[in-house]
């Protein structure tokens, strides 16, 4: 390699690069996909059957599963952010504060925050999915009142989250998300 002639350094303008590589078009930030920030999942166990750690596991799995949409980019997952933001996560595990949510979403360069509630009962799991925008404004909420299996609830929430973020999952993905 040392005997090969050096290649000339070519400089291109942004416009020239856009013409040379038309597949790589820049989308406006607010239309370019999403980068979700995972919030602690609130836990209720009226029958005393489970463990509050189930809510953390649910948050971790929900965070990972929302990556399935093509519009998802660069998400930091729950386990990582929970360790890095312990004080804020402790506060948010008690109640969702829009100011703290907005601060974390902006600090982590996210577009949205995703959280909710997991309710453990004798009949199974029910809950709620909530999504906040970058300003901490509540923009989506869906309640899952009928108890079901843990992974069935997780799959239902992920599918609804993907649809909210603009991705209609295929039947095969829906099946996979419910396993």
Could you please describe the fold and organization of this structure?
The protein has seven helices and four strands, in the order αβααααβββαα. It has helices at residues 14-20, 53-65, 78-84, 86-94, 98-107, 150-164, 171-177, and strands at residues 36-44, 112-121, 124-133, 138-148. The longest helix is centred in the C-terminal third of the chain and has 15 residues, at 150-164. The protein has a four-stranded mixed β-sheet with strand order 1-2-3-4, sandwiched between helices. The model has no long low-confidence stretch (mean pLDDT 92). A hairpin with a 4-residue loop joins β3 and β4. 38% of the residues lie in helices and 22% in strands. By secondary structure, the protein is of the alpha+beta class. α2 (53-65) packs across α6 and α6 packs across α7 (171-177).
Indicate the low-confidence ranges by residue numbers: none
Helix content: 25-40%
Shape: elongated
Order of helices and strands: HEHHHHEEEHH
Total DSSP E strands: 4
Largest sheet: 4 strands, mixed
End-to-end Cα distance, whole Å, is 52 Å
- Number of discrete helical segments: 7
Mean pLDDT: 92
**Which value, in Å, is the CA radius of gyration?**
20 Å
Strand order of the largest sheet: 1-2-3-4
Query: How much of the polypeptide forms β-strand, as a percent range?
Result: 15-25%
Structural class: alpha+beta
Task: Provide a quick synopsis of the model.
The protein has helices at residues 14-20, 53-65, 78-84, 86-94, 98-107, 150-164, 171-177, and strands at 36-44, 112-121, 124-133, 138-148. By secondary structure, it is of the alpha+beta class. β3 (124-133) and β4 (138-148) form a beta hairpin.
